[in-house]
Every structure is written in structure tokens, then in C-alpha cells.
Amino acid sequence: MRRLLRQAVLLPILFGLIGLHTRHHTNVDVDVDVDTSRPRTDSDSDSDGGGTRRRSPLAGRGHASDAADTRTRATAARPKQPGAPEAHPHRRKRKLDDGTVLEIPKKGTPERPKQTPDYSSGFTDGLDAPTKNDDGSWTINLRKHDDWDQADFDAKANHLQQLGEGGELTKKTGDGDDRGSTVDQWRRDKEYEILHTSENQAEVNRRLQELDQQQIDHAQELQLGGKDEKANMWAIDSVTNHGMGGQINSQLRQVPDGAKIRINIVE
Length: 267
Known about the structure:
The protein is of the alpha+beta class. It has helices spanning about 1-35, 65-75, 150-165, 180-195, 200-210, 240-250, and strands spanning about 95, 100-105, 130, 140-145, 215-220, 235, 260-265. The strands form three sheets. Strands 3-4-7 form a three-stranded mixed sheet. The chain has a two-stranded antiparallel ribbon with strand order 1-2. A hairpin with a 5-residue loop joins strand 1 (about 95) and strand 2 (about 100-105). It is elongated. It starts with a helix and ends with a strand.
């Protein structure tokens, strides 16, 4: 009888301890699966980022100090592949079905105030000189300046680095492409695209003001053998483009014409 009483008391306690132990290990397994064992995605990449320069409210990007916000901004940034804007009628006004008329405002108006970039300086200070590689190519360096847009820097630097790894970058020689009117045509086409893909005048104004903060850039720089054609163009932050072009130019002066170029991105 005493033995039966002891079993009646001890068995519930024993089963309770087993259940507690099982629940504890189940929770640990779930935590590991969610937080540390999942595959890394593009939004986890250490190279992703948002803007760190003085941002306009139009750009919608904050500072790189917030890592989570940085990853979100990078995935939501402007399209980063070069290419011509979509073809749309070259008319500065568009009438909606309800009779509302949208238009491309002139620059310098309240709807489209003039943008004056505050170009940074000192972006080549302390930048290492180009180095010659064993295969005869040269490596030049790109390093983000504090005033530059992180997402646009990453897009351009990574694009050039990939071209260099494929042997497609060459210091321009005398017969290389020069800048013509294609850049201005690309911008005009983009303005028409904005007009014909916006739902109201406020959206037209906002998107044009953002475009005015950007330069139409050759994704593969002309000085690196790029072509002056629409398929090689995109719009990126003016200050960032100006500075990156300056970094490239300052180093190419130390490289012979026709040399193959590789890109090193300085963290």
C-alpha cells in the first residue's frame, strides 16, 4: 500500500518534469530555425545600404546607421539596371479619362524648383594609387564618400566591378566614344515616361523633382570604354556620380591608354 501511494505521488511529478524538458528543447529548436539557420537573402547582403548623404524628403532614404532600415531601402531603391526608358508619346500634356490634364512643368517653377547639387570635395584624399596586375591589367579603387548615396554607389561600383572581372573595362583611347546628345534624349524620354505613368499631377511633380536631383550617367563610363548609347545609361544621384567619376579619372591618369581595368571597392 505504501509503495502504491509513493507511485501515485511521484509519477505526476516525473511526467511534469519530462514535459517541461521537452517544451524547453522544442522552443530552442524553433529559435535556431528562425533566427540563425535560415538561408541568407539579397536583403541580408552586407553590401546593401541606403543613403548617407544629406537627403531630400523626395528620396525617401535615411541614414546608413540603421542597419534594418538600410536593407529595406536597398531593396526598394530605384531600378539599377541601365537601359532606355519606355517609349511614350512626346507630348508635355496628358488628358485623363476624367478630364484632368497632367503636364510636365518647366524647371524653375514652384512645381519643379531648380536643383543645385552641393558637390562634395576631398573624395580622392588618401585613395591608393592604381596597381598593375600580373596579367598586365590595372586595378583602380572606388571608395564611398560620406556625402554620397549608398545605394547608387553600390549599384555603380558593383556594376563596374563585374564588367572589370569580365575583361570589359579598358582605359579609353583616342577613338573611344565621346558624349553626345544621347544623354539629353534619355532625360527627355524619362520625363515623358514619368508623365504617362503617373496617376496625378502631384506624382508627376514629385518624380520629376527626384529626376532633377540625378545625373544621367553612363553605367560603363566613357573613360572606361563605355558606349554613348541609351542602353548604357541610368539616372543616379548627382553628387555620387560626380565624385565617382572624379575618383576614376584621377587614377586613370596613372594608367596607360588601352589598359584593361579592374575595380577594387574599398570598404
